[in-house]
UniProtKB/TrEMBL annotation:
Protein name: Probable GTP-binding protein EngB
GO cellular component: cytosol
GO biological process: division septum assembly
Domain called EngB-type G: residue spans: 22-195
Function as written in the Swiss-Prot or TrEMBL entry: Necessary for normal cell division and for the maintenance of normal septation.
SUPFAM superfamilies: P-loop containing nucleoside triphosphate hydrolases (SSF52540)
Transmembrane residue ranges: none
Family classification: Belongs to the TRAFAC class TrmE-Era-EngA-EngB-Septin-like GTPase superfamily. EngB GTPase family.
Keywords, in A-Z order: Cell cycle, Cell division, GTP-binding, Magnesium, Metal-binding, Nucleotide-binding, Septation
Cited InterPro entries: G_ENGB_dom (IPR030393), GTP-bd (IPR006073), GTP-bd_ribosome_bio_YsxC (IPR019987), P-loop_NTPase (IPR027417)
One Pfam family cited in the UniProt record for this chain: MMR_HSR1
PROSITE patterns attached to this UniProt entry: G_ENGB
GO molecular function, one term: GTP binding
Lineage summary: Bacteria, Bacillati, Bacillota, Bacilli, Bacillales
Length: 204
């Protein structure tokens, strides 16, 4: 997909703030510091549209990014960050659950897992919750460039086995640093968003 336009739209905390233009939405979920912002920036060829932070737990809303006026990336708060209060975690959980279960425009959840480590309990619980509710998932393993090429397949298998990857779900290994997996991930996104090959690239 050739991205010719990308913009930050809103940090939403309730459904009343969600966009109303009915474009397909792709949600990004994962632990704090798994690399969601870096992945967005790499996919859209921008250095800092999605702000990266060395401070885990900074994203506390649903951040909407509109791509080519054709779809949205919806960046979720990172889960599993201990310094966020229990009250805040509960509020995040309610906001995310309401969105995931009720948002008609949601077409795919990209669950991001750090490829360097086995999935955490939070990663496994998140995947199981998504599958329990019948949501389409693409598991994206991040920071692939940090692992020697000869060990990447082994790390990927550990993650697939640990979460019990369903055969209908896509699995993409990704590096925001090197762009590895970018084309493959765009192909998955385009398929779930319902694009034809011509549709996503807007040249006007």
């Amino acid at each position: 997909m050739k991205v010719t336009k990308s913009e930050f739209i809103i940090s939403a905390v309730s459904p009343s703030q969600y966009p109303e233009d009915a474009l397909p939405e792709i949600a990004l979920a994962g632990r704090s510091n798994v690399g969601k912002s870096s992945l967005i920036n790499r996919l859209i060829n921008r250095k800092n549209l999605a702000r990266t932070s060395s401070t885990p737990g900074k994203t506390q809303q649903l951040n909407y990014y509109r791509i080519n006026d054709a779809l949205y990336f919806v960046d979720f708060p990172g889960y599993g960050y201990a310094k966020v209060s229990k009250t805040q975690r509960a509020l995040f959980g309610q906001m995310m659950e309401k969105y995931l279960l009720e948002r008609e425009e949601l077409k795919l959840v990209m669950q991001m897992i750090d490829m360097r480590h086995p999935p955490t309990k939070d990663d496994i619980m998140m995947y199981e919750w998504l599958k329990h509710h019948g949501l389409p998932v693409c598991v994206v393993t991040t920071k692939m460039d940090k692992i020697p090429k000869t060990r990447r397949a082994k790390h990927a298998k550990v993650i697939r086995d640990a979460i019990g990857l369903h055969p209908e779900d896509s699995f993409v290994s990704f590096s925001s640093e090197e762009g590895l997996g970018k084309d493959e991930l765009w192909a998955v996104i385009s398929r779930y968003a319902g694009f034809t090959e011509e549709q996503p690239s807007i040249e006007e």
